[in-house]
Specification:
3-stranded antiparallel sheet, disordered N terminus, globular, 4 domains, 535 residues, mainly alpha
């Protein structure tokens, strides 16, 4: 059965709508159908909403928000959200979810069961963040400050909620490993890769990253050392024009700068190909790092680009929503592809999906700062808040949490046995691309350490090759020299005050290089025994 959605005004009915999506299990369903088959064993009957007094406009908004979740998360989890929403809507929801509805819903839960609000809380926040009508702004304020008795120690959403709160250190490292491998295996695009990396490394709002220009990537030299800075446009500043002020984030990761520069170069080439010209260095600085390719495709000259940018300066920046190439489309795609689970969520005897959304990266960035002793004022400045009213939550740590943090930072998060996932080769003649000199991976001194086993483009530097499953290090490559270089860079960043999350990225590379050295030693012993037997 297909639902007829009434027009907002009047009683005239429109023709049945159709919006077909794929569930995370790859089952096709129609947003406007009453039955959504999400996998072989799970289906949702949205006809059960009919007895409720939902307006047509609200019912449609709910379907759109739930359809996004059905594409991003497991069928059992979405089914639980659907049941919880029906319960919530029964408290008088008609055209919008407001504070009283949530309070009444929470009052029906026992202390031990209050944690069940965690899942629906994440859904409502995501619904609101996507600018789909139906959730009052005050509900967001209530949900983000709410403490649930069922959650460990009653931590607030920004810290402890496994659905919508900050990621743990383990989850952060797993996320980095996943999206690096996903990009290497061409499961996600360069744009996807650059955007999720920027979200994780900066804690910026999606709109701030969408408004970045190539000219916002800057370098400076101090005492012979090159430093990388990122000029991030402020957001939510009252009465301020587009890119009217900036927060300069100093000493950003060289990894992030490399990937953003590569993404910017891709955007510049798109503009040049459309206009059939070569842009000057000054013109390149005006190009958004994340562009709206659809709008670029309608240009005929750079003067037209400048005129439009002057009148509607955000037009050529990637859209926040509405198309597959938008920020919302990217997040949805990443969430759908991500196979990671979290032990903090139990579902049907197993573990639940690790939720990906921009808000969580922002919470995580602030939480990491607080873990390292940053003041509320420093966190507020980093997040672009004008006061500390909304950031004190990040500095409220108990001793138990501090102990867990110290324990996590005191050990390597990636065991040596798992750090290297490539294939050791005796010499270049054994490489997949043995006859392609472009496949060689060189260290900082220009000496080859191995070969790349993929034929696609890669934005990673040579250090990160050691953690890539396509890397083929040479048995007699100068891996010890590479290890010394990476350790030196890590120590230098530590002296500069880099966060432990950034340092953990270096530790992952260090562990991988150590693993390669171990494999080389074992292989050399093996070859030595073979030669001895052949004498």
């Amino acid at each position: 059965m297909v639902v007829n959605v009434e027009k907002v005004r009047g009683t005239k009915r429109t023709k049945p709508k159709s919006d077909k999506r794929l569930s995370k299990a790859n089952y096709e369903f129609d947003v406007y159908s009453d039955i959504w088959q999400l996998d072989a064993n799970t289906s949702l009957n949205l006809g059960l909403l009919n007895p409720l007094h939902l307006t047509p406009k609200f019912a449609e908004s709910y379907r759109l928000a739930l359809a996004d979740y059905a594409s991003e998360f497991s069928s059992s989890y979405v089914s639980n959200i659907f049941r919880a929403c029906r319960h919530l809507f029964s408290f008088g929801v008609t055209n919008k979810v407001n504070e009283q509805h949530v309070i009444n819903f929470k009052s029906t839960l026992t202390k031990k069961m209050e944690h069940k609000l965690g899942g629906i809380r994440a859904f409502l926040l995501d619904w609101h963040d996507k600018n789909i009508n139906g959730v009052d702004k005050k509900v967001v304020e209530l949900l983000t400050s709410l403490k649930l008795s069922g959650n460990e120690k009653g931590k607030a959403v920004a810290l402890g909620c496994p659905y919508s709160g900050a990621y743990t250190f383990e989850e952060q490292i797993e996320l980095v490993s996943w999206y690096v491998d996903a990009f290497t295996d061409k499961l996600i695009s360069l744009t996807d890769y650059a955007f999720i990396m920027a979200l994780q490394y900066t804690g910026a709002r999606p709109i701030q990253l969408a408004n970045l220009y190539y000219g916002d990537l800057t370098t400076r030299s101090e005492a012979g050392i090159e430093h990388f800075d990122l000029q991030i446009p402020n957001a939510k500043k009252r009465d301020e024009p587009f890119r009217g002020s900036f927060k300069v984030k100093q000493d950003v990761s060289e990894d992030l700068m490399l990937v953003l520069s590569t993404q910017a170069t891709q955007s510049i080439k798109t503009v040049e190909a459309q206009l059939g010209i070569r842009l000057t260095p000054k013109q390149k600085k005006q190009i958004p790092i994340f562009i709206s390719e659809l709008d670029i495709s309608e240009l005929s000259s750079f003067s037209e680009f400048e005129q439009i940018q002057l009148q509607t300066p955000d037009l050529f920046c990637i859209r926040q929503r509405g198309v597959s190439s938008s920020v919302g489309g990217m997040v949805k795609r990443l969430a759908r592809l991500c196979p990671l689970k979290t032990t903090r969520i139990k579902v049907d005897g197993g573990y639940g999906d690790l939720h990906i959304n921009p808000r969580r990266f922002r919470y995580t960035h602030a939480t990491n700062m607080a873990m390292l002793g940053a003041s509320a004022h420093a966190i507020a400045e980093e997040l672009g808040h004008e006061d500390i009213q909304n950031v004190t939550i990040y500095t409220e740590f108990n001793e138990e949490m501090a102990d867990r943090i110290d324990e996590a930072l005191a050990t390597d998060l990636v065991p040596l046995a798992q750090a290297f996932s490539g294939t050791l080769i005796d010499s270049e003649k054994d490489a997949i691309r043995a006859n392609d000199p472009r496949s060689r991976i060189n260290n900082d001194s220009g000496n080859p350490v191995g070969n790349c086993g993929t034929f696609g483009f890669c934005a990673n530097g040579s250090v990160h090759c050691y953690t890539c499953n396509k890397f083929q290090p040479w048995l007699n490559g100068p891996h010890a020299e590479m290890l010394k270089s990476v350790v030196s860079k890590r120590d230098r960043k530590r002296e500069m005050g880099a966060s432990e999350l950034v340092l953990q990225g270096h530790n992952r590379s260090i562990n991988a290089i150590k693993a390669v050295i171990q494999k080389c030693n074992a292989r050399k012993q093996e070859l030595g025994k073979e030669r001895a037997l052949n004498v």
